[in-house]
Design a protein that fits this description.
This protein has three domains: 94 residues, Translation, Eukaryotic Peptide Chain Release Factor Subunit 1, Chain A; 107 residues, Nucleotidyltransferase, domain 5 (2-Layer Sandwich), CATH 3.30.420; 101 residues, Ribosomal protein L30/S12 (60s Ribosomal Protein L30, Chain: A), CATH 3.30.1330.30. Helix content is 39%, strand content 24%. It is an alpha+beta fold and 358 residues long. The protein is globular. The strands form four sheets. Strands 7-6-5-8-9 form a five-stranded mixed beta sheet. Helix 7 links the parallel strand 8 and strand 9.
């Protein structure tokens, strides 16, 4: 089964019991910088937790982090940026193939905004490349890429086993299924598309010859297409927000957004990737307290916490730059259609009071 990033990261996104440490480490040519980042992160975590954990518990909690610096072969095995997640029930290291800045967060849940950005930037897709004697299936994206399986066929006879490929696609994927791109020789590709029993055919292009950089050409084409789709997704979400304002089913004040998130009323949340607002969110009432900086082991980026809550309740989250958001707000929310029905039935057309939090 091909697992999506969302399914792989869901335990991290939904973890909210106990102390959580999230460390994002950019990797450069010097492994010494990595060791320094880990030491800095351990020191920061210790400062936050020494007041709330007994010494034995604190040493047990931080031991896996400290062990990383004592085992340089582990650090050397990561040739790209990576993140470390530690809670009383988890210790996980994940390679991060997008640009990140060093950060260490100690909070009541994991800091996941960089993961959400990665999920948005590097959305999964399947690529079917119809070559001279086979159909090769790749799992692709703007960044990640790996071959899955080859299905041989007789190109001269024009015989392609639609059933075998269709069965593989349906068995290897789960809802929501990733989009499919078809590429390669025109005749077998068009023949297969007629028998495709898979929702989500996105695009196809002809590549008749066999250039030495065939895979690179395909990857570049897919990457550019997905990049355009990400830009369109962000722009269309901002346009959707502007349209929804006419029906008073939007929120741009962070306190109103937090309350709506707790109530499960947010259909789509747009948050700034380049802004942090530290504080605490009451996940039962939606009340928030905002702090000028990260005060203690329970403080977190409120944008991060609200995004996790929206996703947990079935909403979607879009990551954008703050300067592109309405009035430079850190977050914008589009409410679900039940909120529209309530507004219409109650004659409620009052525009929300705007209390800027930026």
């Amino acid at each position: 089964m091909i697992s999506s990033k969302l399914s792989r990261f869901r335990p991290l996104l939904e973890s909210n019991e106990g102390t959580h440490v999230s460390i994002y480490i950019p990797r450069d040519e010097s492994s010494g910088n990595v060791h320094a980042y880990i030491r800095e992160a351990v020191a920061l975590a210790r400062r936050h937790l020494v007041r709330v954990m007994e010494e034995r518990e604190l040493e047990w909690f931080l031991k896996p982090l400290e062990n990383l610096n004592q085992n340089p072969e582990i650090i050397e095995s990561f040739q790209t940026h990576f993140a470390i997640f530690r809670s009383p029930w988890a210790f996980q290291i994940i390679k991060i193939p997008i640009e990140i800045e060093f950060s260490c967060s100690v909070a009541s849940s994991f800091h996941v905004k960089p993961l959400l950005k990665w999920m948005q930037t590097d959305r999964e897709c399947l690529v079917l490349d119809f070559q001279d004697q086979s159909c090769r299936i790749y799992q692709g994206g703007r960044i990640t890429w790996r071959a899955l399986k080859d299905f041989p066929y007789d190109s001269k006879a024009g015989e392609i086993d639609h059933t075998e490929i269709n069965d593989f696609l349906l068995q290897a994927t789960a809802h929501p299924r990733p989009p499919i791109f078809l590429c390669g020789q025109k005749e077998p590709m068009e023949s297969f598309s007629l028998g495709l029993k898979y929702d989500g055919l996105r695009h196809f292009f002809i590549l008749d010859n066999e250039p030495p950089s065939r895979q690179e050409i395909i990857r570049n084409h897919i990457s550019r297409t997905l990049e355009r789709e990400e830009i369109f997704q962000i722009d269309s979400s901002l346009a959707e927000y502007s349209y929804a304002e006419q029906f008073y089913i939007t929120r741009s004040d962070l306190r109103d957004i937090a309350r709506a998130a707790v109530q499960g009323r947010i259909r789509k949340l747009i948050i700034a990737e380049d802004k942090k607002i530290f504080g605490k969110l009451n996940s039962f009432t939606g009340e928030i307290s905002i702090h000028p900086f990260d005060l203690d082991h329970e403080d977190d980026d409120l944008l991060d916490d609200i995004a996790q809550l929206v996703m947990k309740k079935g909403g979607s989250v879009i990551i954008s730059r703050q300067k592109d958001l309405f009035e430079g707000r850190p977050a914008l929310a589009i409410l679900n259609f039940e909120s529209l029905d309530a507004n219409l039935s109650q004659g409620n057309y009052r525009v929300e009071e705007k209390r800027a939090i930026s």
